Amino acid sequence: QNPTVGFIGLGSMGGGMTRNLQRAGFPLVVTDLRPESAAELIAGGARWAPTAAEVAAASDLVITMLPTPRHVSDAVSGPGGVLEGIRDGGTWIDMSTSVPEVADAVRAANAGRGLHILDAPVSGMSVGAANGTLQIFVGGEAADVERLRPVFEAMGDPERILHVGGNGAGYAVKLMINQLWFSHLVATAEVLAVGVKAGVDLGVLRDSLVASPANSTFVERDVLSILEHGDYDEGFALALACKDLGLSIDLARSVGVPVELSALVDQVFRRGRAQYGDRAGEMAPFQLYEDLIGT
Ligand code: NAD
């Protein structure tokens, strides 16, 4: 008998993740601020609960997939939150791109309750959530990670479910992935603009980068989807990309590492957000350079 999974946050990511849990045979209890986001799941047999507390009370383990640390804190520690419903010894997995402070406070305030808490943020875009091919970076106790592996495997690529360390390590890994990813975007857009202005054909320049040691997934895959399909990945809002860059810089500051490049990338993304809006896709800042490239 599969455990019942409680799932809070049925947006771009949570929508696909829950459909895959359902397909894999996990009974679901779900909630979201937008009830309409659960319609398809309910038609497939999931139960709706009006609050996070009721989700937690009706499930064997609870997953949160929410936009920001503030949303996670509200859904877990706020009125009607997970902590009001979860049983002693219960499990909470936060799969949001977030920071350890929320879970640390929960642990400190509930020391005697034997809660199992893991951070397990993901990469792979909303298409990976829909296809069940996410990469999952788990921070927590090894025994918990093993026990929960079937749950993770329902949502992610089994080869890329990585136990990356103790509590909080998953969050740190995920923030560093996005920091490097967004740095690739800015670095790539700059060199394309300069090379094209210097007279090189855009396609030739891109192919040359792909053939060189400077190749990256951004150069090889995303430049094409931007230039050929105008796809800036609207499944991941630019506002959330800026949230991640801010959290990444906060993390650097908290551990005393100077990050000049990260700060510049953050500013480029904030300029993109001012220009194109919160709901533009995560890769929209590339457009700041497209006029120069002449596409
Ligand atoms: P989203 O905005 O599409 O979805 C978030 C959902 O949470 C919404 O449906 C919203 O109504 C709901 N919600 C907010 N507060 C709530 C509360 N208190 N109780 C119940 N529901 C609540 O966001 P998303 O794109 O699915 O991202 C979720 C997390 O995953 C973020 O931390 C994001 O950074 C991360 N992430 C996103 C992507 C992507 O490609 N979209 C990829 C990797 C990681």
Automatic annotation (TrEMBL):
The keyword Oxidoreductase applies. One of its GO terms (molecular function) is oxidoreductase activity. Belongs to the HIBADH-related family. Residues 168-288 form the 3-hydroxyisobutyrate dehydrogenase-like NAD-binding domain. Residues 4-163 form the 6-phosphogluconate dehydrogenase NADP-binding domain. This is NAD(P)-dependent oxidoreductase. Pfam families: NAD_binding_11, NAD_binding_2. Its EC number is 1.1.-.-. Keywords: NAD, Oxidoreductase. It is an enzyme of class 1 (oxidoreductase). The keyword Acetylation does not apply.
